[in-house]
Amino acid sequence: MSNTPSPLSVSMTDVSQPRETKRRRARHHKSRQGCYTCKLRRVKCDEARPVCGACSFRGESCCYPPPNQQLISSNSARSARLGSETVEQLLQPLELHLPELSENVSRDDESINMADMALLTYYMIHVSGNMAVHPERKLSWQRVIPALAAKHEYLMHLLLALAGTHAVFEAEKAHGSPLVPNTDGNISNQIDAALSRDYHRILEHHQRGLEGFRHALAGMTASNVEYVFCGSVLIVAFAFASLRIRALNDAHMAPRSEDSLEQPYTDWLHLVRGLATVAQEHWFSLKISSMRSLLLYAYANDDWKPNPPSSPATIFPRLQHASPQLLLFSQGAAQQISLLGNFASMLNEDVGTCMEGTGSPETRISPAMQASELLSEQIKTLEKLEEMYMRILYVFQFTTSQHDCSVSRDLQIDLEETAVLSWPHAISNAFILSLQPGQELGILEGFSYVILAHFYVISLLFEDLWYMKRAFPQEIRTVHRLIGRLAYGPLASLMEWPMAFVAGR
């Protein structure tokens, strides 16, 4: 048989195996300048303006990128892949397809204040974790208060002022001298220019924060009381901390003059007392707010009354390894309350002589208040002092720790739970009036300062709180010098116990 294929077989092969042809995509121009609607639908946009054909057909809104949002050309992209572009060309803003801002949107505050950002960072790193020892209250300072401050400018000013006091004090320690302005209003020569700027920045933040706080306080309701209470807490913390930088003298936060350095600071007491007013007016709203941990204290009560500590007290077991200040307090607090009460009784017997105004240091009294009225306020204040002291002695008696921490930290947590640092709220305005600087000092007024020094002793027991250190020892020394000028032995002897705390530091 012949091997030559027949014409039929050839034709069948051609039919069964058709020739394959390549499909070619139609050429078109690529563009990324289409409208946002077509981009979202992933359809081609003809880029007709003001409304493209696709949007016009569908009856949809058509919005194009602003003219200044131009993409890098394809030639630039290819050259970038080849490594021929400079860094400046590559660092282009991301193409975020957002509509243009309306004309009424302000762009005035777009810059970042780096000094304030540094203070805020300083607060979060160095301050927030050291404002309380109890874990729940510490968490409030670390998270709740910064979150509330981020919503109101006046709260942020108050928070930055508080952070600045800590920063200035740390700088003061590095310089080895207290931050006290000299008589011409300048910062001491030992404090450098940078610290001086920080000092004035603190005062500016505090003044602006107080101004905003006053407006918020005037319009306080149940809906904004949480923010107002947060502002009160920041103001109280600043009042305590400001004593460390020796900076405040009057309502305008002006530096003290050289003459007033012999008088103890009392203006900060007015800042602190405002907190109680806010809390009392909206107690229920605050108890269910995010700030409730700063209101509820386990041992702020009268549990000590059934068995008040005797004088002198025995050494409690949990104080065996405590600091000298805590031991000194446990051994002498009850006795000191007794001595102060005895002195008040002596004054009460001699109040008729005091009112005669013979001019001797023993008998001068304040012209703003009758001697009997002042003595009555002092006795009431002594009752509050005894209450605070007994709360402290009560927790000193605890034996079993309830916290997973060191013995010293456990003791500090229990001290914080007594809420004894709220003592400025417990004293009356009439008593504070007897502490006005510049008035002629007599025995009765001097006794008010002695009582104040015994309240300051409470602050010395809080060894883990930065805003309680160093300022109150200096204030106790100032009271001691003030009482010494009266040259009245029985009154001066009452300062020996507070001065023992100062000497032991």
UniProtKB/TrEMBL annotation:
One of its GO terms (molecular function) is DNA-binding transcription factor activity, RNA polymerase II-specific. Residues 34-64 form the Zn(2)-C6 fungal-type domain. Keywords: DNA-binding, Nucleus, Transcription, Transcription regulation. CDD domains: GAL4. The keyword Nucleotidyltransferase does not apply. Residues 1-28 are annotated as: Disordered. InterPro entries: Fun_TF, Zn2-C6_fun-type_DNA-bd_sf, Zn2-C6_fungal_TF, Zn2Cys6_DnaBD. Residues 1-18 have a biased composition (Polar residues). It comes from the Eukaryota. This is Zn(2)-C6 fungal-type domain-containing protein. It comes from Talaromyces atroroseus.
